[in-house]
Fold:
Amino acid sequence: GAVVSQHPSRVICKSGTSVKIECRSLDFQATTMFWYRQFPKQSLMLMATSNEGSKATYEQGVEKDKFLINHASLTLSTLTVTSAHPEDSSFYICSARRQGMVDEQYFGPGTRLTVT
Amino acid sequence: GQSLEQPSEVTAVEGAIVQINCTYQTSGFYGLSWYQQHDGGAPTFLSYNALDGLEETGRFSSFLSRSDSYGYLLLQELQMKDSASYFCAVNQGGKLIFGQGTELSVKP
Structure:
């Protein structure tokens, strides 16, 4: 159990457009999901914590108006990169924490975003 | 502030044992996790220590000393498929803060 999916796995978009990435927990309910960004050969940087039914909590330095997060249900969180620019090109990974569990997160396979 | 330190890269041969150290300075600490990530893939969970001591899971073991703000991941009987990046991550009440990662290269 504990499978997390992301869609799409890869996306290429033009500068100025918006892109939506979905994160789903397939076989468990996740009250909390997390969004990370990872540049090549670097660590995972936490962008925001997504809580079902409430506003996301963004890490310092992450623009909440640029990276819109919606956690509409216990199995789905979405990240929308608005007005994307080439510097937003990165690997975006979500994770889900199983309801009631503190110490383990399950990661999605990631989404490779390229902005041209 | 918060910081995690781990070596940037380690090289070892097949069959050997390797230890990857992690020291941390964070506000709020619930435990230390270890994740493995192959190129282009997602991180996969290896182990978690909330209390001091050694946790063993097959070929992988992880150790934590809360008083020293230090932990390590021990990989035994190395295999070529273990070549990957390994990240320590501090659990801050469910939120994970990752170290910079250690790239492990296993040679024949």
Chain A touches chain B through 20 residues (CB under 8 Å).
